[in-house]
Amino acid sequence: MCFLELSDKIYLKYSNRDAFYQNDDKYLMINPKDNLISNAIQKFRSLTMWNKKFEIFLDKKIPIGAGLGGGSANAAAILILLRNLYNREKKQNKLAFSKIFEIGNELGSDIPACLISKDLKLKGYGKEVKKNKIPNNYYFLIINPNIQLSTKAVFKTFSECEDLRNETEYMFFENIKIYNSLLLSAISLAPQISDILKRLKKMPNIIAYGMTGSGSTCFGIFKNLNDISCKSKIFEKEHFIWYGKKSNYNVNRVGSSKMLENNF
């Protein structure tokens, strides 16, 4: 797992009531009453008995249901922010980082990794996390057909594609085997994924490509930015297209209070 410069931002301020706001892109809207940010806040309150109320604004950039871990990353970010604010107030009874790991494990298997947000190698259900090293001198192209795929639905069709799974191609990027056992399951629900992968395969100088998570996003890896910017027009205009580099995020990634205030 590696993390990209593509990211959401969460702005928060104290309030006398809980309120949730977000940007109004129809492809990026999440349920304001039932989402991982709100769930993480409730779990944090249950653990700490700290009942502060907040107004939250989510500036969403990562597509939803895309296999990019946007929801998990949001939950991890809000847990880091809440711990930061809590420890400023409770200086004699600070909350250990391990405690928000416990909350993350309860909320979802990707969240512990998103709390660290560095190059990682995962095993099991996300609890076995080891640091990895992926070179910084590569560029990543992200293509999403603006189709939301349910991870539950993809896993449900997994066994139906078992006979074809051994025919799936794989390749290597550095020492990493690029292979996704959920690919055929995802394609059965969203055939557009197959078309995107075929177009990626034809791009000159592409080093590796594949599908992220349970889909529906596909990626390509390149050595030079020009190889992406000149050729990304081969994809449909309605697709979500992003390219850039990977990034490692600090576990204390919290902005200033002035920056938070200016976004309401």
Detail the topology: elements first, then pairings.
Blueprint lengths: L8 E7 L3 E4 L13 H13 L4 E7 L10 H20 L7 H11 L3 H6 L3 E4 L4 E4 L7 E6 L6 H6 L14 E3 L2 E3 L4 H7 L2 H10 L4 E6 L6 E5 L3 H4 L10 E5 L12 H5 L3
Parallel strand pairs: 2-3
Antiparallel strand pairs: 1-3, 4-5, 6-10, 6-11, 7-8, 9-10
Helix pairs in contact: 1-2, 1-3, 2-3
Strand order, largest beta sheet: 9-10-6-11
Number of domains: 2
Return Rg in Å.
19 Å
CATH class of the largest domain: Alpha Beta
State the major sheet: 4 strands, antiparallel
The fraction of residues assigned to DSSP E strands is: 15-25%
Q: What count of helical segments does DSSP give?
A: 9
What name does CATH use for the topology of the largest domain? Ribosomal Protein S5, domain 2
What is the approximate shape? globular
The helicity comes to 25-40%
**Unreliable runs:** none
Q: Could you give the count of β-strands?
A: 11
Structural class, from secondary structure content?
alpha+beta
Oligomer designation: single chain
SSE sequence, one letter per element: EEHEHHHEEEHEEHHEEHEH
CATH architecture of the largest domain: 2-Layer Sandwich
N/C terminus separation: 33 Å
